[in-house]
Amino acid sequence: MASEQRSGHRIEVERGSEHVRVTVAGQVLAESSRPMLLSETGYPVRYYLPPEDVRTDLLTPSSTHTICPFKGTASYWSLPDGPEDVAWGYPDPLPAAAAVKDHLCFADVELL
């Protein structure tokens, strides 16, 4: 779908067909069959899920923000009783990551 390489660093985003689920303490936070897969130099493939497949009603915006020179500024979400910063996303990504705009990513996803 989208691919960009800059100074040896590569980002590629493609539509996946895997069925993925995210659970924390036995509670399902997200389940999707339409993830966006983001591959980035030096990192494992990350699954970005559309917001309509995420229980956003269970998440609270965090004050955490990080800046990636290749993807842009990430915003984070937490569960009210923890853990903190369980999900992140790019509300205004740089062009290389435009396909994951407003999608949410979790550190641990289960492939079904």
Automatic annotation (TrEMBL):
Alphabetical list of InterPro entries matching this protein: DUF427, DUF427_sf
A Pfam family recorded for this sequence: NTP_transf_9
Domain of life per record: Bacteria
Domain DUF427 stretches: 20-107
Protein name from the UniProt record: DUF427 domain-containing protein
